[in-house]
Amino acid sequence: MSETGPAQIVYDKLTPADAARCAELERQLFDGDDPWPERAFLAELRSRHIHYVAARVRVPEGERLVGYGGIARLGRAKPYEYEIHTIGVDPAYQGRGIGRGLLTRLLDWAADGTVFLEVRTDNTPAIKLYESVGFVTVGLRRRYYRVSGADAYTMRRDPT
């Protein structure tokens, strides 16, 4: 585990024991856009080609999951491409650099390849974060989010 910042944020591996909390955060963060249920996280965590990172805050009772991020390696041979599946941060902890910390760790895992993601076109904070680490918009996916019908940008970051 590694610590950063005065808020005592610890980054480590997401585990199956975290799946219920991830689903709870999904309902808060993505309520109008088909939030992932616990079983979706459990399935992702079973896959060998998907990597998940957790952000936890130290509390008197121990640690509490306040963020998560996942990325998948695509293809069977190098050069790999990667796709960020999700990044979520508890609304009470947003604006503290946790999303950037999660993203950095995902990108470190995928340093040898091109990384893609989709982001709602109206999610300005996320778009600015992605652009700040080298992502560029390469496409528009109309009605990408099934439930709300919201559009998404496809963004790409080439290997560093």
Describe the structure in brief.
With 160 residues, the chain is an alpha+beta fold. It has four helices and eight strands, in the order E-E-H-H-E-E-E-H-E-H-E-E.
Written account of the structure:
Keywords: Acyltransferase, Transferase. InterPro entries: AcTrfase_RimI/Ard1 (IPR006464), Acyl_CoA_acyltransferase (IPR016181), GNAT_dom (IPR000182), MshD_Acetyltransferase (IPR050276). Its EC number is 2.3.1.128. This is Ribosomal-protein-alanine acetyltransferase. It is an enzyme of class 2 (transferase). Strand 3 (50-59) and strand 4 form a beta hairpin. Helices cover 26% and strands 37% of the residues. The chain has an eight-stranded mixed beta sheet, with helices on both faces. The protein is globular. It has 160 residues and is an alpha+beta fold. The chain has a single domain (2-157), classed as 3-Layer(aba) Sandwich (Aminopeptidase). The chain starts with a strand and ends with a strand. It has helices at residues 19-29, 38-46, 98-109, 124-132, and strands at 2-4, 9-13, 50-59, 62-74, 81-89, 114-120, 136-141, 152-157. Helix 1 (19-29) crosses helix 2.
